[in-house]
Amino acid sequence: MLYVVVSIGCDKVAFWKKQKTQKNKVLPVHIGIIMDGNGRWAKKRGLPRSAGHKAGADNFRKIAKYCSKIGIKYLTVYAFSTENWRRPSDEVDFLMRLFKQYLEESLRDFKEENIRVIFIGDRNAFSEDLQTRINEVEASSKICTGMVLNIAMNYGGRSEILKAVKSISEDVKESKLSIEDITEQTLSDKMYTYNQPDPDLIIRPSGEFRTSNFLIWQSAYSEYLFLDTLWPDFKPVDLEKALDKYALRNRRFGGI
Ligand code: IPE
Ligand code: IPE
Ligand code: MG
Questions:
Q1: What is the pLDDT of residues 53-90, one digit of tens each?
Q2: pLDDT at 108
Q3: Less Cβ around it within 10 Å: N or C end of the chain?
Q4: pLDDT value at position 14?
């Protein structure tokens, strides 16, 4: 077991060093973005918070397409957390309507760009109508072979880990798995992001220095970048700057 963990660690370091010596900029394989600051963006302009969410949603579309264009393989965006239900009901209702509208319009664009859309999070809390659309979008997007776009909606890292633990416990109870055979990989395989590499880079605009429950299992060795820019103002040029900074990071994964 120890050998497996150590050897995975070494592979990662070797892969990173090899990439570093290549001429082109080292691109993250998987980027996570915490799309924060919509409300403050609107407030600065004397607009209702809903206008900020609309601007944020438009920006999400642009940045997702840009990531796909430059060759990012996986993008995970945080759109609605398990804690965001605490907001006033009119804001939550507006966000749900916005998601529905997006499922109808914008996500069609992604199909044209060959982007595969996956929803991560507990979708059971959404209206039946929204759930049906989520399922439809995912099903129709299965044939896409380009960038994988994970949209985190009603997502929380802790609830994801809890779900994994419960599922593993069931497997043990039904004798499908013995406790000795539970590894880190067993847990990774139970996450919404199973079969996907962990995020290399996580960007949080809006000036907050916290993760707010985003990909907490998967981000053990992610590089973080916290920016003051508010999400609707985050442009492809800001992403390029973020990628430049990422390329200069020295990732060691516990090695030297
Ligand atoms: C992020 O922007 C969008 C969601 C969490 C749904 P916010 O709405 O949190 O914007 P701020 O942080 O209040 O500016
Ligand atoms: C994180 O932003 C969640 C999303 C961007 C979807 P929040 O605005 O909810 O985070 P906190 O409350 O500032 O930590
Ligand atoms: Mg916020």
A1: 999 999 999 999 999 999 999 999 999 999 999 999 99
A2: 80
A3: C
A4: 63
Radius of gyration over alpha carbons of the chain, in Å?
Answer: 19
Residue 207 CB–ligand 2 contact under 6 Å: no
How far out from the chain centre does Cα 211 lie?
Answer: 12
Question: pTM score, two decimals?
Answer: 0.92
Name the residue at shortest CA distance from atom 3 of ligand 2. Answer: 81
Q: Which residues surround ligand 3, an ion (CB under 5 A)?
A: 36
Q: Atom 3, ligand 1: which residue's CA is nearest?
A: 36
Catalytic (active site) residue 213: no
User: Helix or strand or coil: residue 201?
Assistant: strand
For the chain, give every domain's residue range: 25-247
Ligand 1 atom showing the smallest separation from residue 40 Cα: 14
Give 131's pLDDT tier (boundaries 50, 70, 90): very high
